[in-house]
Structures are given as structure tokens and as C-alpha cells.
Amino acid sequence: MSLSSALSIAQSALLNTSRQTTVVSRNLSEASNTDYSRRSAVLVSSDNGARVVSITRATNEVLFRQNLSALSSYSAQSTLTDGLDTLSVDVYGAEYSTSPATAIGQFQEALQTYSANPSNSNVAESTLEAARQVVNVLNAGSDAIQSFRSDTDRSILSAVGELNSLLADFKKVNDEVVAGTRVGRDVNDALDQRDGLLKKISEYLPVSAIQRSDNDLMLVTTSGATLFETVPREVTFTPSTGFSPGSTGNGIYVDGVPIAAGTGGNTSAGGKLSAMLQLRDTVSAGMQAQLDEIARGLITSFAEKDPSGVQPDAAGLFTWPGAPAVPAAGTLVDGLAQMISINAAFDSTKGGDPKLLRDGGANGAAYVSNTSGGAAYSDLLLGYAQRMEQPMAFDSAAGIQASISLSNYSTETISWFEGVRQDSSRAAESKSALLSRTQEALSNATGVNIDEEMTLMLDLEHTYQASARLMRTVDDMLASLLNALG
Amino acid sequence: MSLYGMMRTGVSGMSAQATRLSTVADNIANSGTTGYKSSKAEFSTLVLPSTGGSYNSGGVTSTIQTSISSQGVLQYTTSTSDLAISGDGFFVVQDSSGAMFLTRAGSFVPDSEGNLVNAAGFKLMGYSYANGTPTVTANGFNGLEAVNVASTSLVATASTSGAYSANLPATATAVAAGSLPSDNVAGSQYTAKTSMVVYDNTGGERMLDVYFTKTGANTREGAVSDRADATPDTFFPYGTAGDPPLATQTLTFDPTNGQLDTSGFTDITIPVPGGQNLTIDLAGMTELSTGFTTFDAYVNGNPPSSIQQVEISQDGTVYAQYSDGSFRALYRIPLATVQSPDNLQVLPGNVFTQSSGSGSIRLGFPNEGKFGKVVSGALENSNVDVATELTSMIEAQRSYTANSKVFQTGSELMDILVNLKR
């Protein structure tokens, strides 16, 4: 041990302290970056004073995994909630103003007024106007659902494109990490980037990452399809040119394996792709089926009956392309809500007579109920009103109980939708809470704590001062030796 | 017993101290020279025969000793081609005329031809791995060549082995014969699918689709097909419908614990198109009542990759590291030593050569026998301690002054003697 080696130890202490200070300053500058993990410089003693061997990055595998899965569920749930909100406004209007239930309610009132004043032709005209409104609501609602499906289909296409480009970026960063790890470079920045990309990818699909040698990651979806292994696997999706009721859109494939759509208001989906499939095919199709059933209920309730019971029932005020036949009882007809229309025989704007509603006979003389032609005849109108309140058979495929009156069915559709929506928004809240909890836990474990860094900085400052003092002391000792030379 | 003798003794003392001061000057000047070994002057007496009452002053002779065997402090640097020896031994280097020398100055950098050359212009010598693992020639420099790290060759390795482990869902429905992936018909059904990137002989990437299909209780069919043959969008059929896949294997699981029945097949051998036979170990597969979950997937082989950097290990092996992370040994650096290192002849440029007193040169590999280890990314500082040199300088100065006083006294006495006769 000589003065020279004391000097060189002090020198390496200065070097170490300055490198550690660099790490601290980097930590401070990235304190608010959520993708950044805290770094620390590791010292190892050597023959000639300590030496900074590596800069390590704080990690917590378990918390990171939890964060990824929370991110996937939250992303799926919020996509579903947003989609349901859009659907609600598009199909039912603000405050359900354009919902079939509202329109049917108004139509029922008009019908009652008409039955009280069967001779008043103005009331007949306004009843028909209310019926027209019901048809409009059903047609518009059905169109809105189908255009929502097309929009969702396009969103899926762009989401798949984004996911593919994220995977391409992931390959670049993963290659950098692997090559860097193999040659012993500092890959911490690339690791931060890769974790950030992984978080973004899990917003689209629930992934689990499998660590391989040299820090290489393999990504598989939770359903087992390979998403990334050395090279990204293609996520494929062919958009449909248009949607019609009852049609099913194309699936999304990861490496040839289809992604399952989510189910339920508190969706089983992980990632927004699965939630979008659910919106496009399950939720929208359910709503469409309900509108179709309401349309079928209307056609059936207002079918004209032969008073003598010889002729079969024929479509009356509400008609469809299959008229004069009435749709089969209790069986869903896809797209009926789009096809339903007002029978031209009743429509004064098309040369028809609204009074046929009171008298019957739109389908020929055999169907005339008011045989005497009295202006105060209201039996048929009362019969229609009664039929709307009587339980009838509905297809259970539409998701609502099978035997219920038409007016109740129309309000039930809203309860059904509100039920799904409430489940979804409640689940979105709890999943968002879980996400922020896991994020907080992860950030506590791997994030930068400014207090800690400041304390460390003070320590480093003292070490630096002490090393500098040591150098000055050695310098003084050598100076006194030189002074002795005269 | 003469004044002249005494004066000459003083002169010899002065010249000895001058020699010592010269070594101090050299040491201080080279205190920052990598691999420099400090010299010091050692004195010995020269005695003249004396008779009873009279004393004949002799003199002092000086010998220079160089502390070549004393280790200097290692200073760490950021260059991997900076080398230091921790322990005994010397690097063998060659000057431009082809003569071999020994040195401990290891600040090597590649020159324009890729040879590792140190600050004094000497080339580092080593044994090449070109013709297999080298052996050392213990008593000469035969077989040594300049270490050259310029090679820019590319290497690729075909995949030959791998491992895959996953859980296959036990509750899945079995697929009927006739629409299995092995039947390779349009609309073939499967239970689980994964894909793997493997490398052919030229390092080209090949994507293999691996299907696991439940064929009955506790039996699974593994089938591997080449993605290049797949029908767009539907995958099946691969190539012509009905052609068998690259490889198929039946796996049997033990119903008592869901583990792979090891008495059956535990691996699958796939003839990679354009490549080698690839054997994938499936011993870690399980069949439990949960979803399809991949635990691990690994295949060896690498795409064409170039030299990223050169690393030198403690045993003196010079490795080229390729971009895929694989190492390839290029050279092995030997260390040389002699019987008495301190008696080596010192030559300009921090090099040493054997002298009559040092014994003959012997070579060996680092970390073997009494040879030290090679430390990459470090340099050996000079073993000079400035404080020791300064104190030694003060001592020499005082001693020189005292010797000159002896001479002066003799001279003054002579003066008196001469003045006796007028």
C-alpha cells in the first residue's frame, strides 16, 4: 500500500460516485414516466477499490403480470361500456325518446282515443300517424344497429392493424434486448420499452409472456394461440362489406386460431378485440332480435281476422313482404323490424283509408267486421287494444321471457338493455379500481421514489466530498515530501 | 592509506549516488507508463587489502536491479482489448522486424489489418484455433501468429433440437378420424395449435405449425406442417390435400396424474425442409382439466450473424461473439516466463528479452501451472511508488553531498601538504 495506490483508490471512488449520481439523475428525470423502472448502480469490490459492475433495473414479475391482466380486463370492459352507450343513443335515442316502448305507448293512447271517438276521422288520422311513428322507430332502430355493427367492424380492422404494428415494434425491441443481453450491453432502456409495448398489446388481447433464455420473450394469448415467438404471428381479420340482421361478422384469427367473443354484461372478454366481437355479434344481434320480435308482435296483434272464421288471419295495419300471411307464431324472423311497414290500404298519403282500422276489410270483404257500417263501431279497435295487452308467444332466442304481452315486451327490451349496461358500467368501475390498484402496487415496487433518490443523492455528495478530501490529503503529504527537497 | 585513495573513494560514492538518482529520475518519469517496472541501484563494497595499522579505502560499485516480478496495480478501463496479467507471466509480442519479446504492457488496439497492437507498436501473438484446439510449444515461439480480430465471416446454425411443454385441455372433445390434421384435408379439426420458428441449413427462417389433437381418451396426435405450404386463411390443407404432414406422433397421457406416459413417445422428430432433423422434446407436456397453456418453447439454431465484439477470457482465449450471442474461439494467448524474471534484459518499449542470467523462455497457457490470469478491460500500472522515489532522491542527494565533502576534505588536505614546501 503506497500513497500512489491511495490516490488511485480515491480516483476510482470519484468515478463510481459520479456514475451513481448519473443513475440517480436519470431516475429523477424519469420519475413521472410510468413505463420507467428504477435503476440502481451495483458496486463490487476489486483489488483497487470498488468498481461499478452493472446498472440493475427494479422488476417485479408477479405485479407486472397482474397489471397486464387487469389492463386487459379493463380495456375490454370499457370498450363494451362505451359501445353500449353509443348503441343506447343510436337506437333508443336520448332518454329513450325514440325507443319502440315509447312509440308503442303513444300508439296505444291514440288507439284508445280513437276507440272512444270511432266516428272522428281526424282521430283516425292521428292514430295512423302514431302507427307510422312506431314503424319509423323500428326501421330506424334496425338501421342504426346494422350501421353500428359496420362501424364496429371497421374499428376491429383498425385495431387489428394497430396490434400488428405493435407486434412489429415488439420484435424490434425484443431483438435489441436479446442481442444486448447476449453481448452484455445495458438493455434496461429496451426492457422499459418492451414492457411499455407489452402493456399496449394487452389492451388488445390478454397475453401471457413466457421468459426464455437471453431475456427473450414469447407471447401467447390466454387461449393458447402463439402471438409472438422470435417473429410476430399475424393477426388476421377480413372486414365484412355490410351487415344485415341475422348475419355474423368474420372472426379475428391469431396465428390461425380464432379469438372468442366475450359474454355477459360483466364481460368475460380480455382485451378490446374480444369485447368488440361481443358488441358486434352478441349485443347488437340480441337487440336486433328483440326489435324483430316487437315487429312480429305488432303484425300479429293487428292481423285482420275473418269474423266467420273461414279465411286465415291476414296482415292488417302493420304489414311485411310476406303479407298477406302472418309470420309464424313464436318464431324469430330476422330483419322483420327493417321490413315492417304501414299497409298502404290504411295510409291516406298512399290513397288508403285510415277508417279500415275501425271497420276491417283491408284484405277483402271477408274481413269486414263493421258489417252494418255504423260510424260508432268500436269493437274492433277495442279488440286491437286488448290484444296488445294479452300475453303472446315470443322466441326465447331474443333473450326475453317467451310469454308476455306486446306492450310489456317492448318495455322489457329496455330493462334487458339497461341491465346489461348497468352490469357493464358497474364492472368497468371495479375493473378500473383493480387496474389502478395493481398499477399503484407495481409503481411502488419498481417506480422512482423521489425522497429515496434525494437521500441517496446526499449520501453520494458526502462520499464524493470525502474522496476529494482524501485526494487533497495525499496531495498535501506529497507536497510536504517535496518541500523537504528544498 | 593515502589521500588519493580517499578522494577516489569519495568519487566512487558520488558516481554511485548519481546512478541511483538516474534510476529515480527514470522511475518518476515512467510512473504512469503501463507495464513499467521500477529499477533501483544496489550497492556493493570494493575492499582493498589493508595492513595492520593502515586502512586503504576501497570504493562502492553499483548494480541495477529491476523489480520485474513485482505486480503493478490493475487499473480498469472500458476497452475489452486492454489486457493485464494478474500473477506471473508475460505476453509474447513481436516487433515489425519479426523478433519476439515479452511484455506486460497490454494496451492493445486493433490496427488497420485487425492485428492487436500495443502502445509501443508490438503485435500480440497467440495460437490460432483454425486447425483445432491449439497446444502450447513449451520451449519456443513455434506456431505463434499475430492475433487478428478483423474476420467478418457470417455463420448460421440449422435447428437440430428443441423442447416444448404445454398443458393440453383434458376436457376437450375428441376429433374423429378422417378430419385430423394428419389427414390434411380442408376443414381439418384440432384441439390446440402453436407455431415455432426454426432455421434451415442456410439459416433461413421456417415457420412450423404444430397441432395437438385429441383422438381419444388420454391420446393426442401431434402433427407438424410447414407454414409455407398452408392454404391462405384456412391453413388446411397444407400442400395437396391428403399429403401427410412433416411429422406426426401419438402421445399417451397417464389418466391417473395427467402427465405424459413416459413409456410411450416423449419427443417428435421433424425433417425441417431444407434443414436438419429437428428433435423436439415433449416430456413436459401435461393433460389436465384447464385451458391450453404453453409453459416453454425453445428451439436451437440461429440466422446468419456477424461478429459483434471480441472477448478475451481469463484463460487467454480470444472469443468472437456473434450477433446471435454464440461464441467462437479464434485464438488462445499464451504467457511466457523465465526462471528468473528479474534478470530479464530491459529494452525500449516496456519489453524484455532473455539474458544470460534469466534462464530460457518457457511458454504456457494462462491459469495453468504458475501462470497468472489474463484480465480483459484492465491495464497494469507501473509498480513505481512516487513517495518512495522522492525519499530515495532526498537520501541520494544527502549522500552525494557527504561524498563530495569527503572529496573536498581530501583536496583541502592535499592543499595543505603542497603548501608545506615553499
Describe it.
- The complex is a heterodimer of chains A (486) and B (422).
- Chain A has 11 helices and 13 strands.
- By secondary structure, chain A is an alpha+beta fold.
- In chain A, the strands form 5 sheets. Chain A has a 4-stranded antiparallel beta sheet with strand order 3-4-5-6. In chain A, strands 7-8-9 form a 3-stranded antiparallel beta sheet, with helices on one face.
- In chain A, strand 4 and strand 5 (226-229) form a beta hairpin.
- Chain A is rod-shaped, with a radius of gyration of 37 Å.
- In chain B, strands 5, 6, 9, 10, 21, 22, 23, 24, 25, 26 and 27 form an 11-stranded antiparallel beta sheet that branches. A 4-stranded mixed beta sheet of chain B has the order 17-18-12-19, with no helix packed on it.
- Chain B is built from 2 helices and 29 strands.
- With 422 residues, chain B is an alpha+beta fold.
- In chain B, 35% of the residues are buried.
- Chain B is rod-shaped, with a radius of gyration of 38 Å.
- In chain B, helix 1 runs antiparallel to helix 2.
- Chain A binds chain B through residues 2-5, 8, 12, 46-48, 51, 178-179, 181-183, 208, 210, 212-214, 218, 220, 222-226, 229-231, 233, 236, 238, 255-257, 477-478, 481-482, 484-485, and chain B through 31, 73-76, 86, 166, 192-197, 205, 207, 209, 230, 233, 235, 291-298, 308-309, 321, 323-325, 381, 384-388, 390-391, 393-394, 397.
Our Rg estimate of chain A from Cα atoms comes to 37 Å
Oligomer state equals heterodimer
The level of helicity of chain B is: 10-25%
Number of strands of chain A: 13
Please outline the major beta sheet of chain B. Answer: 11 strands, antiparallel
Poorly predicted spans of chain A = none
Structural class of chain A: alpha+beta
Strand content of chain B: 25-35%
Structural class by secondary-structure content of chain B: alpha+beta
